[in-house]
């Protein structure tokens, strides 16, 4: 562990840098270009406000989540938190689930990235290359950025995020200034709108759109003033995403008109944003949006790559993965060995998909990413329950325990909504959906079994699960460890 810590570029990231990384992982422009209009099509006019509800639930979650940063000083995030609250076996299982989930999301998203690059390059240059070529080039570029360290990625992601946010903000201003299609309204806040039969499904989809915000804690060891930086970054990321998503989607509704917005979004969710931007900001703005839609997805991939590498390093430091994965670059402080392994794995999946003739959107982006999405949402539930259990055992933390317990119930409900409506997300049949739902469950059970084997066969490594903080706290409170 000392090698990693001494070599890392600790203290380089401030709260803005962490916010840039985690918000970029959520890819707000790409969300507005497809996912949010899709939520509108099935949830009705209340869909914009659903993002505020999801944000409120995640703010409750953030109370306990950020309190744990004062206890856990490493970069294990969910893995470390679950270990502290629910014991080493649950912690190890969460670590395995984290690696599988984040990798699944990134592997799948390379399909979308390659597809968008293929279309953009063909549109602007006439060069027509298959999607997987662009995906493989992106893997190499993302590996190179990850190697240079999180602060370099934060600078790039900050620029891209600011541009795409300004573009969407300009759209909101233009729609409001022109009074929308038929006047501005708040019909989405009425009881009639919230009585729409699909609003619960839309709420589940809105919840998914915050994916990546939880990775703030992964950068704990690289942040200036760790506790304060991670706390500020977490709340800022949740608040920004909730308000921004709700505001932009509301503007899209106003631009089309309350009477037609749901039907238009249902006809072609992916065309709504581009059509509205060209109508209200002009054709040139539409071209710019097209370009930054591609960079938004690229930025999300960079953010996930960095998060995966840091999870792998934390698990390697604790003996759950090969020790070589904890090595960091002597100059840049980045987990280069973990980054190389992750990039090779991503390239292998892309090549396999190309050989099998997989559809880059349906079978790569949607089907491969869905188990990861379910896994990350499940980890949020586990982490919230762990926080409640951890602080319930401490008199000074009872208020935090209560808040965490409430957020756990809300998160479980939201996760259930996503699972129940998985057919809307995947467009697949029951057999495929059941397989996709089984993947995160198998990952978690595999972690439980592996931890059980370590406890009996390699107790010294088992005792290291969760890192030094877990060793100290579990020694004081050994029950359930």
UniProtKB/TrEMBL annotation:
Keywords: Cell membrane, Membrane, Transmembrane, Transmembrane helix. It comes from the Bacteria. The keyword Transmembrane helix applies. The keyword Cell membrane applies. It is a multi-pass membrane protein. The chain crosses the membrane at residues 12-32, 38-63, 90-109, 129-146, 153-174, 194-213, 233-253, 280-304, 339-358, 364-392, 399-422, 434-454. Pfam families: AA_permease_2. InterPro entries: AA/rel_permease1, APC_superfamily. It is found in: Cell membrane. Its main location: membrane. This is APC family permease. It comes from Actinoplanes sichuanensis.
